[in-house]
Amino acid sequence: MLKKELRAKYKALRNTLTEKDIEERSLAIANNVLKLPIWNKTYFHIFLPIAEQKEVNTEFILHLLSGKDKEIVVSKSDFTTRNMTHFLLTDNTKIKKNEYNIPEPVNGLEVPADKMEVVFVPLLAFDKTGNRVGYGKGFYDKFLSGCKPETIKIGLSFFEAENLITDVYENDVKLDYCVTPNGVSESL
């Protein structure tokens, strides 16, 4: 399927989810994250969910990371340049929603992209070969291309993989894993 068709399909599917569905599926995703071979890493980048878009609630994963004493990094997006700036999440970090309802750090200690060892990636859909469909602005592809090649890229999805996304571009960065409420998919 084409990215445009997948965006429409999965936005519609997400809109059918209740708050209870989102919480239960997000908890199941967090439990499946525990099965990943990532726990020897230190720097973890995670997105803070846009509740209005019914994204995966990453609070459960944040608790896991915090409980394992990991360095947690969150981003701030610049919609003019389509760049993301990454900040260490600490007890003193102030989070504020931007004009697109994205929760972001106001300021803090900046962390370069090449320091990230694991990145949790938001998405609308993904396929069995690790391609993903986001909102189409290219923020994550740009960010991930600045990470080290060995950085582990993990998508989080309420839904299972599509067979194939047909309009993949050369700048699209593939996922290594995608975690759903039903388990972990490893990219081929």
From TrEMBL:
Keywords: ATP-binding, Ligase, Magnesium, Metal-binding, Nucleotide-binding. GO terms for biological process: folic acid-containing compound biosynthetic process; tetrahydrofolate interconversion. ATP binds at residues 3-7, 132-140. GO terms for molecular function: 5-formyltetrahydrofolate cyclo-ligase activity; ATP binding; metal ion binding. Its cofactor is Mg(2+). The keyword Ligase applies. It comes from the Bacteria. Substrate binds at residues 50, 55. It catalyses: (6S)-5-formyl-5,6,7,8-tetrahydrofolate + ATP = (6R)-5,10-methenyltetrahydrofolate + ADP + phosphate. Its EC number is 6.3.3.2. It is an enzyme of class 6 (ligase). Belongs to the 5-formyltetrahydrofolate cyclo-ligase family. This is 5-formyltetrahydrofolate cyclo-ligase. It comes from Flavobacterium psychrotolerans.
